[in-house]
Design brief:
mainly alpha, 5 helices, 70% helix
Length: 163
């Protein structure tokens, strides 16, 4: 006797991606997927160029606190807090806004891989205290930035909607 399998529970679906279930039009799904990948790639180019420009304008001295990477990550997280609060408040946001701005631009702009490399370089250079301070301060400031800006943006949007 064959075993019967119950229908799997519906998984939450990201509203900005195509429905993963098979559809009648795989051509349409493929097109939406390519549009999303293109939006992320285009945004990533812009964000990475902005980050690179910042590192050229404000280089970090060897053994010094990596202020440029720190502020890139903090400002990127702050912008993500604003973006997510605004998108949540807009019921008709274009489906490519979040992939382009969030994943693309801000994902390309922020650089937690460079954060890890900066910390490793500080440790290798004998600056353990600076490395530890950098590791803790970056995470704390980035989390605070996204939380504070999201809360302030939600509040501003709520206050702005009052008659």
């Amino acid at each position: 006797m064959p075993l019967e399998h119950p229908e799997p529970a519906a998984e939450p679906v990201d509203p900005d991606i195509a429905d993963p279930r098979p559809s009648r039009s795989s051509r349409g799904a493929r097109r939406r997927h390519l549009e999303t990948v293109g939006a992320v790639a285009a945004g990533g180019v812009l964000g990475a160029c902005a980050r690179y420009g910042a590192t050229l304008l404000w280089p970090t001295a060897a053994g010094g606190f990596p202020w440029t990477t720190f502020w890139i990550n903090v400002t990127g997280c702050a912008a993500m807090g604003v973006l997510m609060a605004v998108i949540a408040a807009l019921p008709t946001a274009h489906p490519l806004v979040r992939p382009f701005l969030g994943t693309g631009v801000l994902g390309g702009y922020t650089t937690f891989s460079t954060y890890a490399v900066d910390a490793q370089r500080l440790l290798d250079g004998g600056h353990a205290v600076t490395a530890l301070l950098y590791l803790v301060a970056t995470v704390a400031a980035a989390l605070a930035a996204v939380w504070v800006t999201a809360a302030l943006t939600r509040r501003a949007l709520h206050l702005g909607s009052r008659p």
